[in-house]
Predict the structure.
Amino acid sequence: MVPTKPESLLLLTLSFVILLRFTASIVPQEEVEAVENILADMNATNWRFDGDDCSLDMVSEVPRLSQEANASIGCDCNIGNDTDCHVVRITHKFYNLDGVLSPELVKLPYLRSIDFAYNYLSGTIPPEWGSTQLQEISLLGNRLTGSIPPELGNITTLTQLNLEANQLSGTLPSALGRLTNLDSLMLSSNMLTGRLPTTLGQLGNLTDFRINANNFSGSIPDFIQNCRLLTRLEMVASGLTGPIPSNISLLVNLNDLRISEVTGPAQAFPQLNNTHGLIRLTLRSCNISGEIPEYIWLMRELAVLDISFNRLVGRISSNILGRSLRFVFLTDNMLSGDIPDTLLVNGASIDLSYNNLTWQGPNQPACRQNTNYYVNLFRSSSMGNRIQDVLSCTENVKCPRCEYILPLNLL
Ligand SMILES: *[C@@H]1O[C@H](CO)[C@@H](O)[C@H](O)[C@H]1NC(C)=O
Ligand SMILES: *[C@@H]1O[C@H](CO)[C@@H](O)[C@H](O)[C@H]1NC(C)=O
Ligand SMILES: *[C@@H]1O[C@H](CO)[C@@H](O)[C@H](O)[C@H]1NC(C)=O
Ligand SMILES: *[C@@H]1O[C@H](CO)[C@@H](O)[C@H](O)[C@H]1NC(C)=O
Ligand SMILES: *[C@@H]1O[C@H](CO)[C@@H](O)[C@H](O)[C@H]1NC(C)=O
Ligand SMILES: *[C@@H]1O[C@H](CO)[C@@H](O)[C@H](O)[C@H]1NC(C)=O
Ligand SMILES: *[C@@H]1O[C@H](CO)[C@@H](O)[C@H](O)[C@H]1NC(C)=O
Ligand SMILES: *[C@@H]1O[C@H](CO)[C@@H](O)[C@H](O)[C@H]1NC(C)=O
Ligand SMILES: *[C@@H]1O[C@H](CO)[C@@H](O)[C@H](O)[C@H]1NC(C)=O
Ligand SMILES: *[C@@H]1O[C@H](CO)[C@@H](O)[C@H](O)[C@H]1NC(C)=O
């Protein structure tokens, strides 16, 4: 069939548009070569970068480690003072790349974001990266070793730095304090040591800071109070010791605060009465003594409260406003008094074991069967006889020999 006039016009226009697209979307040869070298260094041998349309093509089948696997490259054709398209993003995550990080990133002058999360990349972080203008770096979940190069402190454009779950060692370079645009700094699950440099107090834009599972030394630094925008602060088993600085009360934007395993002198419950938006609060094994402040139970957003393994005394408030409270861990304190019904809401998981609470008989709410909440009362009371200590919710048993028939795992 011979095309009618409007159809041929359409075809002509289409081919013109396609031609225009192809001629206008070419990535400069230097950038194509740089990407090829970067892929080769990472041992991404099954991928090929096509500079004609800025696509990353799979040349042979590669297993995806997750639904989230993503290997792609982003270009921007409106950036720079030429008509070229430039590489601005490289994503290559959840593939089992077993190569190394490439210093050639510096040859991509418009590169803004790299995400190489969840591969098996090894070796060190190239100090050359210090001269890039990256905004986002994620190397989460690889096998990187060595220390964090101080040159990273030169990437003042950086807003996100995620080095979690590697085998990085050494101390944190104080040069990181130059990253004043930094929004999130995630360093959990490495082998970092030494004190946190005071320069981190200059990170005035930091909203998310995580250093869980490391081997830092020294006490939790006072300068953390300068990072006023923090909404999430995690120092679980970081190695840092107590006390928790009193000025943590200035971090009123926190909605997720997790601190645990801090040794040091006994301290009172940190003052969080201005931190109204807390959703999750973990202060586990922090040698906190005294009572749980009343306002904790009045926090409306609070969903997870873990203040286990401390030396808390006093009663659990019955005035609980936090209707979202679903996970409550009060394990191993010296809390006394009754268990308020207001704690026992649908979907709740409550651990009251190892306390000095009033013994709960079989007819009390905490002992009710077929409920939608779960309460661990193991040794939650030390007031009854030996058997009742261990087994709440049983009839008031009085047989002196029962101790001998208790299963071993309950003792
Ligand atoms: C891969 O990641 C990029 C950048 O986050 C995103 O724009 C793209 O949609 C993702 N592709 C797939 C297939 O998920
Ligand atoms: C803009 O163009 C000039 C010369 O045309 C060049 O020297 C300069 O490096 C270019 N700038 C960027 C950011 O590429
Ligand atoms: C790259 O991958 C090949 C096979 O996939 C492997 O034999 C080689 O050891 C890898 N190279 C590095 C540097 O890991
Ligand atoms: C980059 O950082 C290093 C170490 O912090 C420093 O010695 C060097 O002068 C910096 N280079 C530039 C160009 O800023
Ligand atoms: C926060 O970042 C902005 C730009 O994103 C910058 O202008 C400002 O100086 C930073 N604030 C602080 C306290 O460093
Ligand atoms: C933690 O650091 C201390 C020195 O501060 C060192 O003695 C210890 O071996 C380190 N522990 C681990 C598990 O690396
Ligand atoms: C705690 O904050 C107050 C008010 O900003 C300040 O006056 C005080 O010096 C701070 N304390 C410490 C130990 O930094
Ligand atoms: C807790 O504080 C007490 C009293 O200050 C102290 O004796 C004890 O060693 C501390 N415990 C830990 C684990 O730091
Ligand atoms: C928070 O608690 C401190 C000490 O208990 C008190 O001085 C302060 O007024 C309280 N702030 C608010 C807003 O309740
Ligand atoms: C346990 O609670 C009872 C009654 O509230 C109190 O008399 C006793 O001193 C408490 N024991 C401890 C070790 O706190």
